[in-house]
Write a structure and sequence with these properties.
Elements: E1 11-19, H1 24-42, E2 45-51, E3 62-69, H2 72-84, H3 86-95, E4 102-110
Antiparallel strand pairs: 1-3, 1-4, 2-3
Helix pairs in contact: 1-3
Length: 119
Amino acid sequence: MPGSTAPAGRLFELRTYHVAPGKLEALRARFRDHTFGIFARLGLEVVAFFEDAPGGDRGEHLLVYLLAFEDRNHAERAWAAFRADPEWLEVKAETERDGALTSKVDSLYLQPTEHSPLR
């Protein structure tokens, strides 16, 4: 695709966190202060990070982010390393001692089409 410098064949994962009531600030802080650094150390590439815009009537907050991987094997290895990482396990335990920060996490793997500007 003209103008695209991203490598072809990457796999993307769209993750949606349904934030537990009253836990939005704690989840933001965990990503900002810990998770992004652990991701970087383990090779999980965050492409974009979003929150739902104010004014919705869904009754819950969402945090949504897009990760890029070389392929499905890379994604599986990276997530396995993350889930077993001692720093992450400590952070998760500490930040969830008063309850889970999310009520649900959705994950969707996406493959760019040939006409996608992001590849």
